[in-house]
Amino acid sequence: MRKTIWMALILLSAVTVSAAEPKFTQKELAYMPATAQIALFKAGIITPSDVLEAQIAQVEQYNGVYNAELRDLEKELNTFNAGKINAICFDRFAEARQAAKAATERYRNGTARRLEGVTVGVKNENSVVGWRVDMGSLVFKNAPLCDDDCPLIERLKNEGAILVFSTTVPELYVSCMTWSRLYGVTRNPWNLAYGVGGSSGGSGAALAAGFCTIATGSDMGGSIRIPSSMNGVYGFKPPFGRVPTSEIAYETLGPLTRTFDDLVLMQDIVAGPHPKTHASLRPKLDYPTEYQPLKGAKVAVCYFPQWLPGGCDKEVNQALDKVVEALKTAGAEVKIINSDWTVQGGKLAIFINGLLSTEMYELIDLAADKQDLLCSNVKPFFKNIKAYSPTALIKATALGGEMHADVQENVFEDGCIALIMPTLVTPFVSAAFQATQDDGAMINGQTIYSNEILLTPIWNLLNRYPVVDMPVTLSSKRVPIGVQIVGNTFDDLAAFRVAAGLSKVIPQMFTGDRFPDFREEK
Question: Which fold, 28-503?
Fold first, then answer.
């Protein structure tokens, strides 16, 4: 079903091209999946320049002013960039236009590569030659320009992708929503009152707004999956080492896309060992474009009723209900499990202290003498600095071991090929969550001010598990709700199989009336 609409559009255009130029609207071009674009590029029906110009028009229409320094965040929250997305740090449109022309010529002469002419939003973390990585911080706003491409960027470039802009992140990547004193607040295209997630929030928002076709992300505590869920896009947290990244085992790099097919395409390109990176698995895993149907497969589903008192928001539970019905429609056997995992008892602190006891500590250390420039949510890390130690890593490893044993016993040793669970306890998280003392998230009548709203760090502790985050439905406020699909350790293709099966029976975002309308409704 997900291919049918676009293939019909391609065929219709092919029929009419001799009579007149095919007519695609700005919106159709801007949101067109990479797989559909490539087919139309090859057929000579549209060009990469057509798509790029449509997406630049989307940026001009909806993103607002960017590349501004905002020391007064309180002022920004009330007046700056009102009614806009603010997902971009800086653009490279001039270079992108030249690249789009070169890509068009490659399609004409038969030398097009796998992602030729496909636009990419690049998270303000991935190094690109001549680009600046400032980590969303005033402390690093004048960081030197990058002198090389990281492996992920190298692979995208080698396959002809066009890098169009840098996407916003929370300062030092340590918040679950995307705002900073350097770039301001990034807002959700589906509903501007709500957040885009973090730390790959700008990438998620740019996709949802039609600013680019695919985007890069990294995930150290949910930073791909949270934005995926909140923006209605697909995201993949590969197991540690699948995509060349740092030596921090909690971290991985991965794709964000609007469709499952694009997720497969991008992940297949960026995965595999690389000579620059010790932490990369070999041999390369190939991701097929088609997956075995779910008929007869056993899939576990957990609502996590004890994560917080009262469990998840009712609309999150309703989204899981839809997943259960979709699994049954696809012929899968569903096992409902009732995990007693809870965020209570300091487990989240064990994870955070363990994470910041890795190489992540260097970021805190570098900013130690410039705390006056930092955002309010970053400063508390310095008060807790004594907690970052080898002992903290040991505690985090022990907690991960306990959770691994539990999920193995209750899910995979019982024959399930995957576990499906919420991404967030609520979709209703303010765009400026944690920016001020009164900016929390409502859940079951209570206001939560901490990262307890996340169910993602589990799979950074258990970092060998692959997790696909896929969109399921729109909430009553039109903020999307996604779920995590967890495969067994290093079994990426099981998670992809479940996502593929569900994508055929769950109505997909960015089709029909399921597009962002840039409303603002609290």
Answer: Amidase signature (AS) enzymes (3.90.1300)
